[in-house]
Amino acid sequence: MNTYELRKSVGTILVSPHPDDVAFSVGGTILTTLLPRPFLIVSLFTRSAYAPYHAGNHDPDTVSLIREKEDMAFAQSTGSHLVRLNFRDSALNVGTREGKFPLLFLSTLLYKWPRPESPFERNLTRISSKGPPMLKHRLILEAARFDRRYRLLEAAISKLLHKHQDAVLISPLGLGCHPDHLLASRACKRLGHLADKVYYYEDLPYARRYSIEGIAKHARGLDRKLRPLRVDISGLVESKTRNLLLYRSQVSSDHVMETKEHTARLGNGAWFEELWTY
Fold first, then answer.
1. What is the DSSP letter of 202?
2. Which residues of 81-90 are buried (b: 16+ CB within 10 A; e: fewer)?
3. Torsion from C-alpha of 97, 98, 101, 107, nearest 10 degrees
4. DSSP letter (8 states) at residue 35
């Protein structure tokens, strides 16, 4: 665990499956007064070889260091503290023993990521990927608890919540059904009773690919008691964008456009981020 300038207590714990998820999804909200400070960003899956806009080497050591520096720059820009848990992201597990059962294999069958390799997988994926969206979501969310990383992840977040009692917890909703986001979402839901309040954010840029009704169905599939809360970030969009672009190895102009389109469609002439809470 890497910790940067961590105080004895924090007001809000923001769970980010990967470096950049908080910037994408609540990068405007954290510039408002909604959430109590100080902030602690917890980046979970920081061991990675994914850096599509980095021109150099893409080995895990190089990429992980690049993404760490980006994470630190974002934390500094937003006045946040940062903890990095150093779990391997799912992309690094593709082709390994962990990649075959059960979470990544089910992700292949239901969502075609990672890409199916064998003819058997491709044939099975053609059938299973056409299933009802909410049934697929329930299946893969259930499979997350059998992932080798899940208990370790849950224990790490639990330790932080016990240390920072009365903190607000900010969790991904799990839109897009990326395995790492689902692991984080499930863990936070199970540990929500340890927090003063829980908010789930709409995972961007995935959220842009859902209808507004589809997002609501997904949220209530996680917990039917959840209700939306829209946060006006109209005067903060450019500041959010500048901070998002600190993740230059990850973020393209298309990603920025998708993010802006989603915040614009949530309001009539205004810009919003949406959280789901009780």
1. -
2. bbbbbebbbb
3. -120
4. S
pLDDT tens digit sequence for 174-199: 999 999 999 999 999 999 999 999 99
Contact, 27 vs 35, CB < 8 A?
A: no
User: For 36-60, how does the pLDDT look when each residue is reduced to its tens digit (9 = 90+)?
Assistant: 999 999 999 999 999 999 999 999 9
- Domains contained in the chain, number: 1
Residue 9 in domain: no
Q: Which tokens sit at 254?
A: 């298309």
Domain interval for residue 78: 27-233+248-277
Pair of tokens at residue 84: 């990095």
User: How far apart (Å, rounded) are the C-alpha atoms in residues 64 and 45?
Assistant: 10
Contacts of 275 by beta carbon, 8 Å cutoff, 6+ apart? 26, 29, 170, 199, 200, 201, 202, 228, 229, 230, 231
- Which CATH number belongs to the domain containing residue 228 in this structure? 3.40.50
